């Protein structure tokens, strides 16, 4: 482990390099992004291997959720970079005190990205793409709970990117703490709400702005769907989003379902049937479910099910294999609302179904809990859709699907309240790592004498008219036809 | 029960908690969401200013000896402009924004919906106590929030006027003013807010951010810094001098976050610049500026003592080339210019926030960029007076600040299409115009998917054919997809 002074020296060197201005050049940013793309293409096998080692992720899942997303992000950034970097003209009123005004994006400086273990590649590199596109120098600290991926990044990034401006620093909480003591121009953190608070508090020392991508319990409101085909599609999407995406260990995984009582037995049967289809009779044999990341998390999930009332509510699954860190897809019906299962973010392959009298009751249910990162609603009822949007608050709302919003880079991805601060993806990534600087220019020629003291009433009238964009009024005052105004007058 | 006098109830933790609870309930009941409610509040604010302008001017004179014209234009007119703009654009601001979707999620449609954050806290400063209290409130109202405003206790006349006027003209079930100093502010900061906008200095800014971190409350911090003015040669010196004076002494006598703090110019050009400044200063404020009615006073004896200390610093005595006169009783300091103060003097190491203007000289004007960048902190604003195209371009590219102005000072804050905010030590976040609406809104992503068009390739069991197809879909090209389908 490095000493603090080693770290400070390294960061000092990075800042010096940044101040030279190289990272601001479009050509430098493009070279880095292309380098990153080469890494993903050339080291694809190694990447799949590392994800298999850390999480037993199937290559298809790895491609769909991490590698593919990154390539898409890179292509978008490369394609749109010049556009993103260009300044925008700001509209001016006719009586412009200014001759021109524009807003120019510039990099923030030296930024820190701390990523999470569940999508260890995606959550490290997707923010990195934004930071580099915006022209910053970057330190990336990948999660030590996905050590194969962290090591892969540490080994390869220096070969594909400019190591004077992009560094990977490995380590656990101790290293994280050391990093947080330093001065950053931005901190981008993906992880738990608890650590998010610690990060924001640490950031106050240097008034560092933060983007915090946190978590919460993402509810899925399942309305009764009349068409059986719709029901099948709905259930497929629910199962994939819960069990087929890092075994439920995702910030936007469906945490729990809300459905009407009358629908619940049909729903449970349908879920059981489709689970077998997707994962086979013996899900442990199927290579399509990630494992639980480590023993701590396994025991945490086991404890959730140890609660006798919770255990009694299991209607499918429940099998656990501690040696292989495997928990099979488990469905529960109406576990107690005060249980830890229903108050903590599950982050695992346990799917509780909570039944309600009417589906509209889901609105109050959701509002009485912290704002989630995503709210899912499966319904064709337009009124209910509208109510979901206007009467609840969440990072985002998705109708009739789940998780997929992650792939839409024209939508901001981020939380609200305890689910996070700030957003990224697509151009929002570029924005989150930029400072939008206002630039106003004036000519020496247009000088308004009435801007300067000593003050008299005619100057007041002229300023008043000018600020109200009352051009006719300005003329009247100059012609001497208007000598007083409503309100205060200088005698 | 006997009691000698009715004690005003102390605004403590419990009071804070009850206040937030009440506003949250009213917000949850939907009171602030409708377009009509927001319009009514904005119209109410305009009427408030029209009906009570004389009282507002009087309060500002009491608190700051602010010249009526400054109050009328920089506080009231600017605020009125904000309201008028918001009224004009609100419908459009409130509309969802469509987002393009690609083949990856076909068929689908997407949009971003603006929703209010909830119950927000606005803490304002004493130097433009009316504007800096209510301008953020305009944005918070436009975005549909419930609001608590805590004006600065250092401008007490304005603070109590705000309590009265806001209570009279705006909906008190959703918009409240809480007066007070440190204890009351702490009680407020202990509560859970959906956003905090603070205008003031970096020390308190850190306290606000730390309090916000407990509840993961997003913040906008409008702070300060030392705003430099670079003056090149070959410019219209008269106009330059006038514009510098307006930004400095014409803006609450240097007590403004965007006031020019110090000047950097070449050794050769300095005498001309100083002469021009002296000349125009006399034109504006007469031979006895301590008696001019067109200059604000120093806000209170604390700041007067602070500024006196800057002048009494051994390192700068003998550097005064103009002004220096002080009137302790009336809290007045004359416009003062200092030349060639040492970089390690007090006056060059803290934000001056007063009528003292040091000039630093360099050999070549290009050296100014180093002076600014080596200070290690990014200011709220930076100014350049020059006709040299290359220098202007270099300035815009090299100097990082909240905002830059070429050939003028301070004016950018009146332009609603420019975001107003700092970077680094000068702050985070921005407002004004639509940026105010955005800063008090949550931009919620909404994605609509249809049940049709379900691609089995998304689901396990996974096969290598699925991986090929997936690559093609994420790549988004139709040719790629057809190729993958055909194997």
From TrEMBL, chain A:
Record GO terms (molecular function): aldehyde dehydrogenase (NAD+) activity
NAD among keywords: yes
UniProt keyword terms in alphabetical order: NAD, Oxidoreductase
Database matches in SUPFAM superfamilies: ALDH-like
Catalytic activity: an aldehyde + NAD(+) + H2O = a carboxylate + NADH + 2 H(+)
Pfam families: Aldedh
Any single biological process term in GO: response to abscisic acid
Catalytic residues, chain numbering: 213, 251
GO terms under cellular component: cytoplasm
Ranges of residues in domain Aldehyde dehydrogenase: 25-439
PANTHER family named in the record: ALDEHYDE DEHYDROGENASE
UniProt family annotation: Belongs to the aldehyde dehydrogenase family.
Name of the protein in question: Aldehyde dehydrogenase
Organism: Rubroshorea leprosula
From TrEMBL, chain B:
Catalytic activity from the UniProt record: an aldehyde + NAD(+) + H2O = a carboxylate + NADH + 2 H(+)
Active site residues of this protein: 222, 257
GO biological process annotation, one example: response to abscisic acid
One GO CC annotation: cytoplasm
SUPFAM superfamilies xref list: ALDH-like (SSF53720)
Keywords annotated in UniProt: NAD, Oxidoreductase
Classification via InterPro entries: Ald_DH/histidinol_DH, Ald_DH_C, Ald_DH_N, Aldehyde_DH_dom, Aldehyde_DH_NAD(P)
Annotated ranges, domain Aldehyde dehydrogenase: 23-446
Highest rank taxon of the organism: Eukaryota
Pfam families linked to this entry: Aldedh
Molecular-function GO terms, alphabetical: aldehyde dehydrogenase (NAD+) activity
Similarity comment: family membership: Belongs to the aldehyde dehydrogenase family.
Cross-referenced PANTHER family: ALDEHYDE DEHYDROGENASE, ALDEHYDE DEHYDROGENASE TYPE III, ISOFORM Q
The protein, known as: Aldehyde dehydrogenase
Lineage: Eukaryota, Viridiplantae, Streptophyta, Embryophyta, Tracheophyta
């Amino acid at each position: 482990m490095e000493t603090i002074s080693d770290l400070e020296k390294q960061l000092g060197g990075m800042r010096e390099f940044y101040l030279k201005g190289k990272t601001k050049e479009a050509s430098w940013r493009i070279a880095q992004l292309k380098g990153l793309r080469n890494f993903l293409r050339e080291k694809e096998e190694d990447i799949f291997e590392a994800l298999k080692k850390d999480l037993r992720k199937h290559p298809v899942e790895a491609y769909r959720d991490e590698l593919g997303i990154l390539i898409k992000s890179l292509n978008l950034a490369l394609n749109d970079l010049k556009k993103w970097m260009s300044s925008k003209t700001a509209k001016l009123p006719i009586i412009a005190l200014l001759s021109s005004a524009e807003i120019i994006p510039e990099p923030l400086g030296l930024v820190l990205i701390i990523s999470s273990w569940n999508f260890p590649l995606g959550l490290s590199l997707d923010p990195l793409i934004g930071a580099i596109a915006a022209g910053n120098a970057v330190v990336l600290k990948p999660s030590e709970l996905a050590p194969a991926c962290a090591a892969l990044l540490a080994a390869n990034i220096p070969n594909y990117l400019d190591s004077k401006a992009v560094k990977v620093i490995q380590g656990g909480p101790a290293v994280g703490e050391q990093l947080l003591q330093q001065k950053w121009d931005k901190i981008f953190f993906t992880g738990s709400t608890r650590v998010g608070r610690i990060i924001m508090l640490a950031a106050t020392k240097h008034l560092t702005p933060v983007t915090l991508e946190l978590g919460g319990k993402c509810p899925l409101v399942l309305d009764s769907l009349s068409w059986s085909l719709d029901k099948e599609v709905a259930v497929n999407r629910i199962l994939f989003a819960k069990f087929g995406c890092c075994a439920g260990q995702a910030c936007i995984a469906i945490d729990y379902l809300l459905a009407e009582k009358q629908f619940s037995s049909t729903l449970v049967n349908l879920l059981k049937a489709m689970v077998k289809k997707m994962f086979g009779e013996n899900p442990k044999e199927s290579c399509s479910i990630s494992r639980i990341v480590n023993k701590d998390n396994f025991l945490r999930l086991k404890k959730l099910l140890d609660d006798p009332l919770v255990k009694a509510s299991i209607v499918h699954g429940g099998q656990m294999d501690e040696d292989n860190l495997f928990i099979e897809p488990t469905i529960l019906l109406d576990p107690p609302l005060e249980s830890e299962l229903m108050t903590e973010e599950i982050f695992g392959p346990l799917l509780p179904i909570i039944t309600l009298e009417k589906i509209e009751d889901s609105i109050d249910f959701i509002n009485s809990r912290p704002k989630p990162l995503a709210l899912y609603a499966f319904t064709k009822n337009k009124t209910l859709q509208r109510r979901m949007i206007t009467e609840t608050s969440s990072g985002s709302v998705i109708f009739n699907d789940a998780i997929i919003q992650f792939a839409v880079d024209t939508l901001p991805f981020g939380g609200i309240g305890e689910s996070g601060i700030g957003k990224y993806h697509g151009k929002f990534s570029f924005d989150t790592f930029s400072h939008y600087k206002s630039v106003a220019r004036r000519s020496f020629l247009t000088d308004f004498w009435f801007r300067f003291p000593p003050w008299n009433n005619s100057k007041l009238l002229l300023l008043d008219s000018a600020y109200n964009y009352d051009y006719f009024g300005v003329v009247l005052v100059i012609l001497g036809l208007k000598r007083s105004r409503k309100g205060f007058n200088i005698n | 029960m006997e009691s000698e006098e009715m004690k005003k109830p102390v605004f403590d933790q419990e009071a804070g908690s009850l206040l937030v609870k009440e506003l949250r309930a009213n917000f949850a009941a939907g009171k602030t969401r409708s377009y009509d409610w927001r319009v009514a509040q904005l119209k109410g604010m305009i009427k408030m200013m029209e009906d009570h302008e004389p009282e507002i001017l009087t309060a500002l004179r009491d608190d700051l000896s602010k010249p009526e014209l400054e109050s009328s234009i920089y506080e009231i007119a600017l605020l009125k402009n904000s309201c008028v703009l918001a009224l004009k654009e609100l419908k459009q601001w409130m509309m969802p924004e469509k987002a393009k979707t690609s083949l990856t999620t076909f068929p689908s449609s997407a949009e971003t919906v603006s929703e209010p954050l909830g119950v927000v806290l606005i803490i304002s400063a004493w130097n433009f106590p009316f504007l800096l209290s209510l301008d953020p409130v305009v944005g918070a109202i436009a975005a549909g929030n419930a609001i608590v405003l805590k004006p600065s206790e250092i401008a007490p006349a304005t603070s109590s006027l705000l309590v009265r006027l806001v209570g009279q003209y705006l909906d008190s079930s959703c918009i409240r003013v809480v007066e007070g100093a440190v204890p009351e502010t702490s009680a407020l900061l202990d509560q859970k807010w959906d956003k905090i906008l603070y205008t003031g200095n970096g020390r308190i800014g850190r306290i606000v951010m730390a309090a916000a971190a407990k509840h993961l409350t997003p913040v906008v911090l409008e702070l300060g810094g030392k705003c430099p003015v670079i003056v090149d040669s070959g410019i219209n010196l008269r106009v330059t001098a006038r514009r510098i004076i307006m930004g400095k002494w014409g803006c609450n006598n240097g007590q403004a976050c965007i006031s020019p703090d110090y000047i950097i110019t070449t050794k050769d050009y300095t005498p001309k610049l100083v002469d021009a400044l002296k000349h125009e200063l006399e034109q504006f404020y007469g031979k006895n500026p301590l008696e001019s009615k067109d200059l604000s006073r120093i806000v209170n004896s604390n700041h007067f003592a602070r500024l006196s200390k800057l002048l009494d610093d051994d390192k700068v005595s003998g550097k005064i080339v103009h002004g220096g006169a002080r009137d302790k009783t009336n809290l007045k300091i004359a416009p003062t210019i200092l030349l060639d103060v040492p970089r390690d003097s007090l006056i060059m190491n803290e934000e001056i926030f007063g009528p003292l203007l040091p000039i630093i000289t360099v050999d070549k004007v290009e050296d100014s960029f180093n002076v600014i960048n080596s200070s290690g902190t990014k200011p709220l604003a930076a100014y350049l007076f020059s006709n040299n195209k290359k220098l202007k371009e270099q300035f815009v590219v090299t100097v990082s600040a909240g905002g830059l102005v070429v050939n003028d000072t301070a004016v950018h804050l009146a332009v609603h299409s420019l975001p107003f905010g700092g970077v680094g030590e000068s702050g985070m976040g921005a407002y004004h115009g639509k940026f105010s609406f955005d800063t008090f809104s949550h931009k919620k992503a909404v994605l609509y998917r249809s049940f049709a068009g379900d691609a089995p390739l998304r689901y396990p069991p996974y096969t290598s054919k699925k991986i090929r197809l997936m690559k093609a879909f994420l790549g988004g090209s139709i040719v790629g997809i057809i190729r993958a389908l055909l194997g």
